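sry for the spam today, last one i promise. C-alpha cells for design, 371 residues
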C-alpha cells in the first residue's frame, strides 16, 4: 500500500498499544487501556469490515450455565473451579451492563429454560436428582435456589413434560451491544482499522513489529484478541469451533419468550423481534465444524429446521429467513487463556460459548496484564 506522509504520521506512527481483533474482548481491552493510560495512542486492527468472529454472530444469551452444563462441568473441573466460572460469568455480565447500560444492549431478564428430549430419560432423571445438590452449591453465590422444574407451557413437542427453569438468566440484542461498544471505543479516539489482517509479528527489546495485508507497523505493546483464530498467530491450545444459526421470519403472536437450551446445550434458541433464533448441532459433525471458515452445512441446517417443525414451533406456520455462522475458540479446559506471551505481547483468547458473559472482564484482564 502506498501510504502518504499524513497517513503514516496520523494512523501508523508512535503507537503505544495495538490490539488485534475488534470483538468483545479486543474492544474491552481498548476501553481499559484508555482508562488506565488516557494519553496513549491505541489502534485496533480488524480483518473484517465488521468484527468477523463470534461477537457479532452469537445468540445473545446472558447466561451462566444450565443445570446439565453445570453438572457436566463438575465432571471435568473441581467444585471451586465451577463456582469460579459461574462467578466470572456473573461479573462479566455486570461489567457489560455497567459499561453500556441495559437500554443500549436491550437487556431483558426473561429467564432461561432447559428442555429434555423424550429420548433423554437418563439425563432428565439425573438433572431432577441433582437439582437440589446444584442449588445448594450455588447458594453461596445467589442466596436462593437457582434451578426449578416447570410444566411445559410453551407447547413444545417431543420433550419431557417439565423443563428446568432458571429465573436469573437474561438475553441481550447482540447487534446493539456491539454497535454500542464500537461507538464507545471510537468516541474515545481509539482508532479501528478494518479490513486489516495481521499476518505475523516479531519482537525486539522495546517494540513489536507487525505485518498486515496492507502495511507494516511498530507498536510498544501488542494484545491479541483473536479467539478462534488464535492458532494463525501461533497461540497454542485453542481450536476453532464453528457454530451455525438460523432465524425465522416474524411469527404472528409468538408466545415463546426466554432463552432455551436443548439436548445438553447442543441446541439453543430464543425469541427476538417476534422471531425464533435457533443455533447448534456441532455435535452432528464436530470434525467439519472445527474450522475458521464461515459457512453452513446441509446436515446441520436440516436438523435445525426439523427441530423447529417437530419440537419448537410444531403447530405454527413459520418460514426461515436467514442462516449464518460464527467462529468460537475452544479447548480442553473451559477457562480462557489470558496471559503474557513474551516481553511485549499478551493474549486473551479461548472464550468458548461464554464470551457474551465473560468477554468484558477478559478484555479488562488482558489490559491489566501490563504494569
Ligand atoms: C453462533 C454463536 C452463538 C453464541 N452464543 C453465545 C451466547 O449466547 N452467549 C455467550 O456468552 N456466548 C455466545 N457465543 C460465544 C461468544 O460470541 C464468544 O465467546 C465471544 O464473542 C468471543 O469474543 P472475542 O472478542 O474473544 O472473539 P471474536 O468476537 O471472535 O473476535 C475476534 C476478532 O479477531 C479478528 N481477527 C482474527 N484474526 C485476525 C487477524 N489475524 N488480524 C486481524 N483481525 C483478526 C476477527 O475478525 C474477530 O473480529 C456464541 C458464539 C457463536 C459463534
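last one done:
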Amino acid at each position: 500500500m502506498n501510504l502518504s506522509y499524513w497517513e503514516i504520521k496520523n494512523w501508523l506512527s508512535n503507537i503505544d498499544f495495538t490490539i488485534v481483533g475488534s470483538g468483545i474482548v479486543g474492544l474491552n481491552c481498548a476501553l481499559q487501556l484508555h482508562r488506565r493510560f488516557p494519553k496513549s495512542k491505541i489502534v485496533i486492527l480488524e480483518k473484517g469490515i465488521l468484527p468477523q468472529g463470534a461477537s457479532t454472530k452469537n445468540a445473545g444469551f446472558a447466561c451462566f450455565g444450565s443445570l446439565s452444563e453445570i453438572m457436566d462441568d463438575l465432571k471435568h473441573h473441581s467444585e471451586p473451579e465451577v463456582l469460579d466460572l459461574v462467578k466470572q460469568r456473573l461479573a462479566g455480565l455486570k461489567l457489560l451492563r455497567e459499561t453500556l447500560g441495559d437500554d443500549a444492549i436491550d437487556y431483558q431478564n426473561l429467564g432461561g429454560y432447559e428442555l429434555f428430549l423424550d429420548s433423554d430419560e437418563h439425563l432428565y432423571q439425573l438433572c431432577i436428582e441433582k437439582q437440589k445438590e446444584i442449588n445448594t452449591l450455588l447458594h453461596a453465590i445467589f442466596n436462593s435456589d437457582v434451578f426449578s422444574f416447570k410444566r411445559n407451557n410453551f407447547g413444545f413437542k417431543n420433550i419431557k413434560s417439565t423443563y428446568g427453569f432458571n429465573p436469573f438468566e437474561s438475553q441481550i440484542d447482540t447487534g446493539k451491544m456491539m454497535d454500542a461498544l464500537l461507538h464507545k471505543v471510537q468516541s474515545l479516539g481509539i482508532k479501528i482499522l478494518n479490513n486489516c489482517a495481521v499476518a505475523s509479528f516479531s519482537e525486539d527489546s522495546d517494540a513489536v513489529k507487525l505485518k498486515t495485508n496492507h502495511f507494516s507497523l511498530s507498536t510498544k505493546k501488542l494484545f491479541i484478541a483473536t479467539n478462534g483464530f488464535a492458532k494463525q498467530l501461533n497461540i497454542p491450545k485453542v481450536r476453532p469451533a464453528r457454530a451455525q444459526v438460523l432465524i425465522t421470519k416474524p411469527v404472528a403472536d409468538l408466545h415463546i419468550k426466554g432463552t432455551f437450551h436443548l439436548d445438553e446445550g447442543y441446541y439453543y434458541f430464543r425469541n427476538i423481534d417476534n422471531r425464533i433464533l435457533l443455533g447448534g448441532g456441532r455435535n452432528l459433525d464436530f470434525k467439519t465444524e472445527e474450522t475458521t471458515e464461515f459457512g453452513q452445512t446441509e446436515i446441520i441446517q436440516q436438523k435445525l429446521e426439523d427441530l423447529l417443525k417437530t419440537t419448537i414451533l410444531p403447530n405454527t406456520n413459520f418460514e426461515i429467513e436467514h442462516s449464518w455462522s460464527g467462529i468460537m475458540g475452544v479447548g480442553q479446559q473451559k477457562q480462557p487463556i489470558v496471559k503474557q506471551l513474551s516481553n511485549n505481547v499478551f493474549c486473551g483468547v479461548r472464550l468458548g460459548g461464554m464470551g457474551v458473559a465473560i468477554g468484558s472482564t477478559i478484555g479488562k484482564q488482558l489490559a491489566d496484564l501490563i504494569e
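The mean pLDDT is 96. ok im logging off now
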